[in-house]
Structure formats: C-alpha cells, structure tokens
Amino acid sequence: MDLSIISLLFLVACIAIGFLLKRNIGLIAIAMALILGRLGGIADSDIISGFNSNLFMVLLGVSYLFAIARSNGTLEAVARKTIALAGKHINLIPVIMVVAGALLSMAGPGTIPVLALMVMLSTALAKELGIDPLSFTVCCFMGAAGGGMSPIAPTGIVALELAAEEGYTGISIPYMFTVLLAFLLFAIIYYFATGLFKAKAQTVPLAMKEVPPLTRQQWITIGGIVVMILLVLFLGINVGLASFLIAAILNLMGMCEERQILKEINWGTLIMICGTGVLMNVIIQLGGIDKLSAALASIMSPYSAPSLMALSSGTMGFFASTSGVVIPTLVPTVPGIIETLGGGVTPLSLISALSIGSQIAGISPASTGGALALAAFVTMYNPNAEEKNRYFLRLFITAIIGVLFMSALGLTGFYSLLQ
What we know:
- The protein is an all-alpha fold.
- The chain has helices at residues 3-20, 25-40, 44-48, 53-71, 74-84, 93-106, 111-129, 133-147, 154-165, 172-193, 206-209, 216-235, 239-252, 258-264, 267-285, 288-298, 305-317, 322-330, 334-341, 347-361, 368-381, 385-409.
- Helix 1 crosses helix 16, helix 5 (74-84) packs across helix 7 (111-129) and helix 15 packs parallel to helix 18 (322-330).
- 52% of the residues are buried.
C-alpha cells in the first residue's frame, strides 16, 4: 500500500485511539510518528524536528500569564462585573455574555479557559432566573469561540503559525474578524430565534447585586495583561515572550502562588498540540497531506470549497480538538486544494472556514467545550440520567446545527469578505 495512504490511516488511528480510550492524542502521535518514520525511512532527527518549539514557547507563555489571572480570580471578577451591567434587563445578559466572552478570549486566554470560567457562571445564573441553561451556554460559547482566533489567543496562534509555514502571512487581522463576525452572526440569529430578546425578570438576582470590588492583585493583573497586549501590538514582541515577561513580573510581585500556577497550566493540551505536529510532519514528508488535499479538492469547486471545508472540519471537531487535531490536519491541505482548483478560492476563506467549522462543533459534548457545558449543567442542576442524556443530545444537536449553518455561510462568499 502507498505510504501516503498508510500515513493517513495512522492519523485516523491516532485520533480514534485517543478519543475512544480517553488518552492524550499528542503522546500517541509521537509514538506513531516513530513507527511511521521507520516505515518511511525518515531519520530520527527529522522526526524530532516536527516538534514546533516556537509554538510551544508561545502557548506556554500565554498559558502561564492567564493561569495567574485565573488563579487570583481576575478573570472571574471581570466576568461577574460585566454581567452585572445588565441589572434588571435580563434580555441583555446573553448579549453581554457574547461580548464579554469574545473580548476576554481575544485578550489572550482563548476559547476553553474563558468558556470554563463563564459557562459555570452562566449556568448558575440561568438556574437562578428560571431560564433554559442551554440558551446562556450557547451565548457564552459563541462569544468565547468567536474571539478564540485572535493572534494572541492559543488557537489563533496555532492556526496562524501553520498558515505562515505554508506561506500565508499578513492574514491575522482579517482572519480574526472573519471568525468573530461569523460567530456573532450565529449568536444574533440564535438570540432572536429562541426568544432571548424577550427574557424578563421582576427583581435583580442576588448574584448581580453583590459583586465585590476588584482587589489590588486583580487590578495589577489586568494592568499586566494590558501591557502585554501593548508590547505585542506596538513593539512587535513575540506574544509568548511578552507573556513570559509580564507573568514573571506578576509572579515576583506576589500576585500568585507559583506552585499552584504550574498545576493550572494545561500541560496536556500543549503536549497534544505539539505532539500532533510531530506526526503531521512525518505525514507531510510521506505525501499524506498531498493525498488528503487531492481527495478534498476532487469533491470541491471554487464556489463550494469554503462550505465543504467548514463541513469537513466540523465533522472532525465533533470529537477532536480544534487546535490540537483539526487545524494541524487541515491547514496544510490548503495549498494543494488551491492549486488543484486552479485558484478562484483564497487561503483566507479556506483557513477561516475550517477554523469556524471546527470551533462551532466544539459545543458537542464529545468535545471539550460541550463537555464543560454538560459538567456545569450536572453540577448546578443535579439531573437524573434521563435529564442528563437529554441535555447531552441537545448540545450535540446544537453543534450539528452550528456546523450546517457555518457550512451554508461558506456558499455566500462570507469567508472572503475581508480579503
């Protein structure tokens, strides 16, 4: 059998084993990279070169800084104060959740940390107000996912680094806003379609009346994050290095407990992202990505390519990590698809489409975002088995609707608007 096809089978097996056995895909990927490399006659040094140390440093720096913000309560305090702005206007809470989720996510933490913070808060608030918790969860998710492709957020960093490796640079701002606008559009439609714009309450909920003021530690942490953003935007400093600098200063100032911070950094995610990169490097060398690109291009036209890319990535995203699996797998296929189609479709539209499809599929309970939402529901409502299964199904249906919507949006030329 052709080694290019075998390499793709290794990738499928890696994802399946990780999902079914609940193991870290990155660790499995490194092991499989060695086996596949031996089959293909690839030297160990070439296999190891697939570990993207630059990406690892960037992700670690950002994770370090926002682990501090999470541990001293800064992120939670900002989220609570933001939601408190709604007062008695309960119909504004979903709007504030979307905006706050997007802004927090864009500032650096990324989708999952912000979602982990806000989904528990929103579920508790929904229970207090007697509102369907799924509606608030969807709003939190759309905001956090929409802002998650910022050039200083982990998933955005992964996508843009991989795009740069394929020769696509200077797309960070249009890419970020294309993703953000797609999620805002879905959120707006959801807001009116589900009747959230009519939500009312007679009294101000206790959780919104009694929001404590920000502490000295939290103000200093917010200031540090602002400085980090300024260093990146105006001095062109690498976001990972800037994050390390600010985090080190905050650490030395006593804004956190270092041992606790090291525990809060999601090492598993870092290993999953960079470990998958090792396997993908071997697959690329064996021609697997060229084969996958040709297969995808064979069913695409310049008109349908963004739509089918969103659908493909969304199907993968139901079960696999956007930053760890889907983006590293599909971004390298973009040059081959464009070449096969003879132009007529832009790199921005394809990279945006695959990112958006995978991101919105993340509300599936089989993915991290949906799993967080399900956990929050179980924690706050203590449901029986039937209620838990029903909520699981509703999350999955929401993910399917989202992927279909984003796929249909690809047919309108939306993903090329900011080119």
